[in-house]
Write a structure and sequence with these properties.
This protein is of the alpha/beta class. The chain has a single domain (3-204, 231-259), classed as Alpha-Beta Barrel (TIM Barrel), CATH 3.20.20. It has helices spanning 34-46, 62-71, 92-106, 125-137, 151-159, 184-190, 210-219, 223-232, 246-253, 262-271, and strands at residues 3-5, 12-14, 18-19, 51-53, 80-85, 111-116, 141-147, 166-172, 194-198, 237-239. An eight-stranded parallel beta sheet has the order 3-4-5-6-7-8-9-10. A two-stranded antiparallel sheet has the order 1-2. Helix 3 packs across helix 4. It is globular. The structure holds NADP nicotinamide-adenine-dinucleotide phosphate.
Length: 273
């Protein structure tokens, strides 16, 4: 596994972590494939994808319960848990309650990284960030960050923080969706904020891409591996592909430890411009 620095914390996180949307459910809980999800997550951890991204929203909390079950056989300190608070829970008290709910479902006494799932313009950002910071002060959360925030929203959030800073913005980023390259990515690079790329496989579309398959042939890699390698060669970027299939988990882990050539990166970027 390759590692990236989390913000400017000197903490190392894997360049490829694991997403969990639809592990334990999507917008509603799904208990039917827990076993498959648990085995996939365990395999990924064994292969070095020790960062797991979940949210109170996923499966209405059941995703967090599946994560808890998957990680219970590993030392807690070897796992980096990311979870997120819903935008409707950004009032001070609601946010604290949401964090306690996540801690309970995750069966842990700390969250490594707690993210605001998306901005809520109806709630003052100061109130929200005070709640986030108080979780850090109480050691319930190690690091804080945001998701789906634009540059203005990141700046507003950072301005009101007293003794912490956001270390991550989790945003959609993949070869077919490169909007963040205009402003969010340069801002994060300049301010030492890690970009956590969600939907890194374009929700399963990129692994089927014929052009990427052909590029991959040169390296004995698959289209999915090319798509992920393209992301993690970018400064400050790490990715969180989701897979419930052991075969895909192994494939995703092997998207690190090698590099696309500069020439191929140029060809790929021209193709997906
Ligand atoms: N913050 C936010 O607002 C937000 C929004 C969306 C997502 N996310 C996070 O980001 C994670 C990733 O995004 P995503 O799940 O939407 O999309 P994704 O990771 O781009 O794609 C997931 C899809 O790709 C398939 N897949 C995975 N690896 C593969 C491989 N090697 N070969 C072929 N197919 C493969 C999966 O199927 P199998 O399971 O069958 O392998 C699944 O259908 C989510 O799970 C979630 O944790 C966050």
């Amino acid at each position: 596994m390759e590692y990236k620095e989390l913000g400017s914390t000197q903490v190392k996180i894997p360049a490829i972590g694991m997403g969990t949307w639809e592990i334990g459910g999507g917008i509603t809980p799904d208990y039917s494939s827990d076993e498959e999800g648990i085995l996939a997550l365990r395999k990924g951890i064994e292969l070095g994808m020790t960062l797991i991204d979940t949210a109170e929203m996923y499966g209405k909390g059941h995703s967090e319960e599946v994560v808890a079950e998957a990680i219970k056989i590993f030392p807690r300190e070897n796992i980096f848990i990311v979870t997120k608070v819903l935008p409707e829970n950004l009032r001070f008290k609601d946010l604290i309650n949401a964090a306690h709910g996540s801690l309970k479902r995750l069966r842990t006494n700390y969250i490594d990284l707690y993210l605001i799932h998306a901005p809520n313009p109806r709630i003052p950002i100061k109130e929200t960030m005070e709640a986030m910071e108080s979780l850090v002060n109480e050691s319930l959360v190690r690091f804080i960050g945001v998701s789906n925030f634009n540059v203005y929203e990141m700046e507003e959030a950072r301005k009101v923080l007293k003794n912490t800073d956001i270390v991550v913005n989790q945003v959609e980023y993949n070869l077919t969706y490169r909007k963040i390259e205009r402003d969010i990515l340069p801002y994060c690079i300049k301010n030492n904020i890690t970009v956590m790329a969600y939907c890194p496989l374009g929700r399963g579309v990129l692994p089927k891409n014929q052009f990427l398959r052909e590029i991959g042939l040169k390296y004995n890699k698959t289209a999915a591996q090319v798509a992920l390698n393209w992301l993690i060669q970018k400064e400050r970027v790490m990715a969180i592909p989701k897979s419930s299939k052991i075969k895909h988990v192994i494939e995703n882990a092997q998207s690190t430890g090698w590099r696309l050539s500069i020439e191929d990166i140029e060809i790929i970027e021209k193709f997906f411009r």
